[in-house]
Amino acid sequence: MRAVAVSLLGPGADVEDVLQDAALIALRRVAEVRDPEAVGAWLRMVVRNCCRALLRQRRAVGSVGEWVPVPDDAAHPERWLERNAMRDWVWEAVERLSPTLRLPLVLRHFSEGVTSYDDIARACGVPVGTVRSRLSQARARLCEELAGIASAAHGDASGLAEASRRQAGETLAAAEQGRFEAFVAERWTADVDLYVGAQRLGGRELLVRGMEGDLADGVRQRPVNIVASRL
């Protein structure tokens, strides 16, 4: 697997990332391999696909839908249910990670726009080397959690994301109607804090001032990517 990754990417840190991504995919999909003798070829194919996805991402950062297969509407119902069950299983495991490990993992693999190591390091307020270390730990821990809860029932991850998307829309609508401060006071906890990495920038009053300043300057906001969990 390493030889395949190096042949496509060259030596470097990306090889380690691809190998860990491929290991996660293999863990989730190994049941698809019917012939034990074909496992080696199948693993190499998984690595090649991960490498190609990374190379496409290097050329242009676009929608995740450009390189993740999206099931068509005509898919069989059992396939649709299986994919949704897989999604909820993965998110259940992600939610069991500590906040320190969960944040870089979610930014790297589930967000849009903040996926590079440099961007994640700035968002988390840590060096790039720490980001790589935490991602490695997070992936290893995620494998353990996936194995530990494989047979359990899992919550509806898409329902949580959709509820958060509605809340974001309601929040921005209230802001444009001049009701942001009242809306925040009604819906948000009083001790909400805004952080960049480990640095606290301020509380609810800072969010209100920032939003009101943006609106006064003619700036309008819109949600781009919603990642929600119960935590």
User: What integer is the average pLDDT?
Assistant: 80
Low-confidence stretches: 60-71
Please write the string of helix (H) and strand (E) elements. Answer: HHHHHHHHHEEH
Largest sheet: 2 strands, antiparallel
Overall geometry = elongated
- Tell me the CATH architecture of the largest domain: Orthogonal Bundle
Give the % helix: 55-70%
| CATH class category label of the largest domain | Mainly Alpha
If strands are numbered along the chain, what order do they take across the biggest sheet? 1-2
How many structural domains? Answer: 3
Number of strands: 2
End-to-end separation in angstroms reads 35 Å
> How many H/I helices?
10
Would you summarize the structure shown here?
The chain is mainly alpha-helical. The chain has helices at residues 2-9, 13-29, 39-59, 77-95, 99-110, 117-124, 128-148, 157-176, 180-187, 204-216, and strands at residues 194-196, 199-202. The two termini are 35 Å apart.
